[in-house]
Amino acid sequence: MSPRSTAPHEIVERALALSRADGCVVIADEESSANLRWAGNALTTNGVTRGRTLTVIATVNGSQGAASGVVSRSAVTTDDLEPLVRAAEEAARAAGPAEDAQPLVEGTAHSAAFTEPPAETSSEVFGSFAPALGESFATARAGGRQLYGFAFHSVTSSYLGSSTGLRLRHDQPTGTMELNAKSPDRSRSAWAGASTRDFKDVDPAALDAELAQRLAWAERRIELPAGRYETLLPPTAVADLAIYQLWSSGARDAAEGRTVFSKPGGGTRVGEKLSDLPLTLRSDPQAPGLESAPFVIAHASGDDSSVFDNGLPVGPVDWIRDGVLNRLPTTRHSAGLTGLPVTPAGDNLILDGGGTKSLEEMVAATDRGLLLTCLWYIREVDPATLLLTGLTRDGVYLVENGEVTGAVNNFRFNESPVDLLGRVAETGRTERTLPREWSDYFTRAAAPAMRIPDFNMSSVSQGV
Known about the structure:
Elements: H1 8-18, E1 23-39, E2 42-60, E3 67-74, H2 78-94, H3 129-142, E4 146-162, E5 167-182, E6 189-196, H4 204-217, E7 221-222, E8 227-233, H5 235-247, H6 251-255, E9 280-283, E10 317-321, E11 324-325, H7 332-338, E12 349-352, H8 359-364, E13 368-382, E14 387-400, E15 403-408, E16 410-415, H9 417-423, E17 426-427, E18 431-433, E19 445-447, E20 450-461
Parallel strand pairs: 7-15, 8-13, 12-19
Antiparallel strand pairs: 1-2, 1-4, 2-3, 4-5, 5-6, 8-20, 9-10, 9-12, 10-11, 13-14, 14-15, 14-16, 16-20, 17-20, 18-19
């Protein structure tokens, strides 16, 4: 029997029926994906994949509290179900009481589409994109540049059922496109990316034109020393920093004095003003173009997630509101420990700064400064201040008297995104963007460009 011959909702129901544990949650993830790759102005590979992963979470009550056992398997058939369920139960019995134990969620309305077939993608998602990409190859070839990159699209249908009666389903499309243009001698490189749900809003020609301009800027090279520079961060770089900040903002760690959101003397910094600008950092599962799961789907427990919270509703939340720290991510367990509201972390992130200018308009208003393309290899240096380090990549440009006058060397930077919130001088308009560093993990983001008056370029980097 093929793994996909049994409908996912039937697999969930059969697994739940086999359970002998005190509680059980079953998650069936049906994923299909399609991809295109290209190099040197020509397509190189394309493909379509499909698969199923089943996660069984068993909970066993004990005199000292409930324990949980989690087992996941791919390509699961009906013959695999009983061994999988028994393995989860055995793991729960062998484990000690779970620190995050809570009653399994109940009372959530069933998803109307729970019994319907999973959504799927195919190569047809690139129906209009691929011909436009081919035209961009021809344009690039005529312009003396080479295009490299890839486009990826997936759809995951998640079916979540529980012994408490939950029957929930969410379809998540995810699309990314990364385009890199290089000069024939590889001495100049420029990057652009896009996040999308269906590739109908991705314009390869526009991205290629942007890269052509950046390669032209880079024909003039200027060497600059390390130091603090007025710097324009594009939306992709701002999103990368904001995502790391969200990932580092768990309420429990903050309350226990381990993060930048810890209050000296105890507690958290919730309610503290972080920026003089009206910055709002938020997540919203219904945000247009950035839609994400409206309920918790947790395949494992961690600092900011709990398998006991599976099915818990996820709503809109302002993490920072008008410059003030408003919420920190919590599970039901960590909310109880910290006294903060239950606030599951969402799967998208939006930063609004109130600005209306485009990045081009911000460049035109710059006397002298740097314009970045993106950041990469971001790593944490100090959790107490959230000091991060990383490198610039694929183009750092000098702006003089409102115009880009050339490309400068790359740098290593040392900055804290929380500290930057207090120093940002201007934000542009918020737009959807692809976070380059975290694009394998987090794609649904919107952010403005930011003007930082004294961004710390701590040393020179020899990267391209």
